[in-house]
Amino acid sequence: MTITVPLIQFGFGNVGRAVVERVLRTRDLFEWRYGLHLSYRALCDSRGAIIEMDGIRYGDLQRALAAKAAGESLSEFALGYLHQGLLDIVDIAASEGAIVIDVTATDETVPALLQALSLGCRLVLANKKPLTQRYETFRRLNADGRLRYEATVGAGVPVIATLTENLIASGDVIHRIEGCLSGTLGFLTTGLQAGEGFAALVRRAHELGYTEPDPRDDLGGMDVARKALILARTLGWPLELDQIAVEALFPPELGGGAAADFLTGAAALDEPYRRRVEAAAAAGKTLRYVATLSDGRARVGLEEVPLDSPVGRLQGTDNLIAFHTEVYRPTPLVLQGRGAGAQGTAAGVLADIVALARR
Ligand SMILES: NC(=O)c1ccc[n+]([C@@H]2O[C@H](COP(=O)([O-])OP(=O)(O)OC[C@H]3O[C@@H](n4cnc5c(N)ncnc54)[C@H](OP(=O)(O)O)[C@@H]3O)[C@@H](O)[C@H]2O)c1
After folding, report:
1. For 229-249, how does the pLDDT look when each residue is reduced to its tens digit (9 = 90+)?
2. Measured in whole angstroms, how far is the alpha carbon of residue 64 from the centre of its chain?
3. CB 3.0–4.6 Å: which of 99, 124, 179, 345 could bond 321 by disulfide?
4. 332, 342, 130, 319 alpha-carbon torsion, rounded to 10°
5. Separation CA 359–CA 345 (nearest Å)
6. Which of 345, 350, 352 has most ligand 1 atoms within 8 Å of its beta carbon, as the pocket-test mutant?
């Protein structure tokens, strides 16, 4: 017997398109392996939507993918229309058991996500913003196990499933979590370790597309802080974002002005960073940008870590998370892998969809 599970997706950008492609590519496999037919009922970007209550056809999804990749909005697409907001889409398309996927990068989805839950839907998020609003919002979204959010931390690295379904569910006691959760900041800190200048590294990361258009969005640490907050809340700690200590990699005086000015001004940081790297090396350590959770508190910032520790051995843009627990000691449980990119993120999203659909 095959069970059809309707999908409603908010967001059709890099990750959103990779999710649709993955759903299409795996449909025969999942039908054979799990008796599961994942069927897109609604798909939308910031302006347009396609809704087909009996399921958007394979060929139409392929055409929508091609149109979107060519820069067209779904509002201009042949089967699409200009939508009036996500609440309207939920009201039309939601039904008990449908899965709503949030692959936007905005907190504007929260009302529609809550409305979808009230109509019996289940939720899969790659978008961190809804989970990092007030704790009360997190609690309401996560009230009864109909939410999964693997891709919000470590993209395709199964951080959340390991934490919830292995560690917490086994009764293990988590003493400390350490994570390098930004590929951009991993690139930067391993470059510093290799003796490169801070400003040149930031410029190179920018040119390679590793940073946001304004690199300060990465270097400020808020993206890592959001991931740390999601981990903290997953542990059951009712923290707010402003309770996380965040160390930015640039001083406040470089916080204003245009991105181009920042790239020039960052040269002033070459010497202080070179000295910090040398001081760490003299003590057998290296610098990494680490999220640390312990004793109900979370902080993110530059840490001196032993060269022979899992975090100290990490190179390049990979993500790593180490769980120090009652069971996993003295050697922590370590997960490492590619922590960004649309394909890995889409894999994390699809694994969540399948996990919910198989319940
Ligand atoms: N890329 C990664 O490696 C990675 C890893 C982990 C998690 N994530 C998360 O995944 C999410 C998506 O990332 P991305 O790289 O795909 O971003 P993106 O390319 O900017 O795509 C965002 C999509 O959301 C749509 N959108 C924005 N506001 C909307 C609204 N109010 N209603 C409906 N749709 C709206 C955009 O519409 P338009 O197309 O009309 O602009 C776009 O299609 C983000 O939250 C990101 O943090 C990404």
Report:
1. 999 999 999 999 999 999 999
2. 24
3. 179
4. 20
5. 22
6. 345
